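Q: Convert this sequence to structure tokens.
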Amino acid sequence: MRSVRGFGIGLRYEHVADLLATGRQVDFLEIIPENWMRPRERALLEPVIERWPIVAHSIHLSIGGLDPIDRPFLAAMRDACRRVGSPVFSDHICYSAIDGLQTNELLPLPFSDEAIANTLSRIAAVKPELEVPLLLENPSYYSVMPGSTMEEGTFLRRIIEEGDCGMLLDVNNVFVNSQNHGYDPRALIDQMPLDRVFYIHLAGHHTREHLSTIVDSHSRPIRDEVWALYEYTIARAGRQVPTLIEWDFDLPPLDALLDELDHARAHAAAALSNRPAASSAR
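A:
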């Protein structure tokens, strides 16, 4: 297993050839293992594994759900981590399966003691099945679930700390949720166990004007407000947390994605030197 440092991107089929040919700096890659298990995708992945550290990030663990834990899925994820040399396995604090059916959605949990207890029991059952540490990500959500009795920050922190997990901190999700639900995004960052953050996600979003809702679409350049929150997060952490750019839909050319990676480097450097990022970084 290779260590994860610096700045990376989520790997998409469309970018593999250009990535292998580029001379621009990419420090690590993230894959959704479920998308790389068929023979054709495995063949695409082989030369990539040789060149870059890779982290495995899933969307089907359903760690907060009520369905029985999917042991075959866990075995497949364990094997995928072993194959690509991922030092961690991550998923989201949510549920995604209902009555044995995968929804392919990250469905929100109520912010409650009952949901915490259920999630912690499932974390305890899942961790021994993996050969690498478990990271959990703060998801975006568009409605506060009935039965919620606490703030989002308290809910997330308790699960990470009481479950003794690492964290994958999605800064764009913090911003999106703060705008949709009316709280200070910096206050939520202040509540997070930043010493447990293994790496950070950054992504673009857009606004659905007719719904007055910001959507975590992963289909746009990162907004200035999110860059500012990222700088705040890095300054609060007091270290260069490895950072990954997600872009999943309406994919741009690889160079446009790597431009975002360069922006991340500039903003992180600015945060750690206590100065504003140069305007040329945009």
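The chain has a mean pLDDT of 92.
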